[in-house]
Amino acid sequence: MRSRILLLVAGVVASLLVIVPAASAADAPPEIPLSIDKSQFQPSEVKVKANAPFVLVITNKGAKAAEFESKDLRVEKVVPAGKTVNVRIRALKPGTYAFIDDFNHQATGRIVAE
Amino acid sequence: MGGTFVVTLREGFEAALILGIVYTYLHKIGAARHYHYATRGGLLGVVASVALGVLVTALSGPLLDLGPDVIGLGVIFIAVIVLTWHGYWMQQHARAVKGDVQRKIDEAQATHRLWIIGVIAFTGVFREGAETVLFLWGLLSQATSTSSWASATGAVLGLAMAAALGWAIFRGGRHMSLQRFFAVTSILLLLLAAGMFSTGVGRLEAMGFLPQSPTVWDTSSALDDHALVGGFLNGLVGYRARPSLLEAGSYLVYLIVAGALLFRGGASKPRPRSPRRPIPAQVT
Questions:
Q1: Is residue A2 one of the residues assigned to a domain?
Q2: A6 domain-assigned
Q3: Which tens digits make up the pLDDT trace of A72-111?
Q4: Record: contact A98-B225, CB cut-off 8 A
Q5: Which end of chain A has fewer beta carbons closer than 10 Å to its terminal beta carbon, N or C?
Q6: Do B225 and A71 count as a contact with CB atoms less than 8 A apart?
Q7: A15 — pLDDT class (breaks 50, 70, 90)
Q8: B252 in contact with A at a CB cutoff of 8 Å?
Q9: Taking the model in full, what pTM does it have?
Q10: Are A83 and B64 an interchain contact pair (Cβ–Cβ within 8 Å)?
Q11: Is residue A12 part of a domain?
């Protein structure tokens, strides 16, 4: 029983490892920069084209780790101090999508897809 | 200080809840001498969290972009599996434990599956663990001024508060009757697992492995899931202010399937022995 579970888990992890890079190499959507500095998002309102995928390039210029989180976008991403993280976002319907630094709730922002 | 207190309290809450429940569970089934399963699982979770925290800080490029997500997803689904399994076994135990003799049989049955408890403790700690490590690390490494020390203190107090909550669950749970404890925690863990499952499905959807589905409802103005209360409800029962159809659907499907596995099976077994059978009221 135990080995079967382990096998199952290993299978799931292995298939994810195979699928994830394949999916990310498909095409090159536009990169939208977003930085975190002095506990604020720059810019705090990100305008993107609706119905087209894009990549959020999040740079943490502060000295503390930040966590880009958006329940609307289903993203939860730690950005260590001084690091840059790319987050692929799928095509969004026109609308407003809130995000927040989960480590510092003063820092908020939104993506406006139009 | 208040802000960092809330962050670590929220991150540590789920771990505390799960650890509180598994220790109480071990106590309840008379397996107190097997606490080390939970302890080792929890400690391993801490070690893995620190390791992932260090790794994330050291990584860059695609590995940093995707690595934590893949690990996060894996942990979510493993947690859902072990929690469901555990819930199922709790129901079995609740039915089996009537007298002392059966309790002993039960203990014997339980012992060789106690490693599941370890996995639950591990996933409970590890799920938000790496984040907490990175958060604390950032605070402590920057703690030079008085205000930053206050932030760091707040963060540590938040973790301590979470630990105290876990301890309170353990203390309170021990005095609850076995049946009630199993009933309450079964439902609690079922909702927790449903929330995790739905989160995992949502992540898969966001990453492009599942088709995108429309938003089912929007209650973000009434109860924002980023805010304090909504955030706790999100961690506890998987509340979402703007769920997609797939997320809401997977939550419901999980509840129905796992609920049926846990409770319908639990109610049907003792029935045949109850004196309801002989009543010949079948003629209509």
A1: no
A2: no
A3: 888 888 898 888 999 989 888 898 898 999 888 889 999 9
A4: no
A5: N
A6: yes
A7: low
A8: no
A9: 0.80
A10: yes
A11: no
- Residue A66 structural domain: 29-113
> Is the predicted pLDDT of residue A34 greater than 80, yes or no?
yes
Q: Is B211 on the interface with A (CB under 8 A)?
A: no
Tens of pLDDT, residues B150-175: 888 899 999 999 999 999 999 988 88
Nearest to B65 by CA among A65, A78, A41: A78
Q: Are B41 and B122 in contact (CB under 8 A)?
A: yes
Specify the number of domains making up chain A: 1
Question: Has the ipTM of the complex gone over 0.95?
Answer: no
- Domain-embedded: residue A5: no
